[in-house]
Amino acid sequence: MSDVGEQHAWTRITEANPEHSQWYIERFRTMAREGADLGGEARFVDAMLARGSRVLDAGCGPGRVGSLLAAAGHDVVGVDLDPVLIAAAEEDHPGPRWLVADLAELDLPAQGIAEGFDVVLCAGHVMTFVAPSTRREILRRMGVHLRDGGRVVVGFGAGRDYDFDDFLTDAEASGLAADLLLSSWDLRPFRKDSDFLVAILRPA
User: Fold this and answer.
1) Which of 5, 62, 72, 200 has its CA 20 to 30 A from that of 118?
2) Is 15 within a domain?
3) Cβ neighbours of residue 53 under 8 Å, at least 6 residues apart?
4) Cross-strand bridge partners of residue 79
């Protein structure tokens, strides 16, 4: 649970501007209609997996990434805190199971989803939006939802009040070890001055 008075940043944004979630949805709908390449994260994860693998899209938003992984033949569950985004995912991308859930309290077996996942994906800067006090618990719960041999994949940018070294420290404290660090979804190597991090993590 979050500390008293501490909020998920997305919650603060949507409370200040109730139209923000719909704006976010329409932004990506427009980009898709205009032919923008929105599939980098999905291609990255798909390359890690055998056909028919199980993927948890943690912080799935309106389903952009999870829907592409489902179209590639994977069994996808998406969760997000924002019910407006989940409603858009259900409308635009039927097929995967989309759930409203707080990642800091994630317990899919309690919701009837007992089988673990080959990859838990957390893209779209999600880890920079969560309440700082919940970061380690979220990472721990991601790891708990893995199958044997599964991986957690997290991507977010610099300059969002979450230093990459702090993230890696939090991951280690949550029982996760770094297998590979990259600076983009197209496999560029990570350097200390990189402005983006893609981390592939395994249970330690």
Assistant:
1) 62
2) yes
3) 74, 75, 118, 119
4) 58, 99
Indicate whether 181 belongs to any domain.
Answer: yes
Q: What is the pLDDT along the chain (204 residues), one digit of tens a residue?
A: 334 346 676 677 777 777 778 888 888 789 888 998 888 999 999 999 999 999 999 999 999 999 999 999 999 999 999 999 999 999 999 999 999 999 999 999 999 999 999 999 999 899 999 999 999 999 999 999 999 999 999 999 999 999 999 999 999 999 999 999 999 999 999 999 999 999 999 999
Domain of residue 58, residue span = 9-203
pTM of the predicted model as reported, rounded to 2 decimal places: 0.90
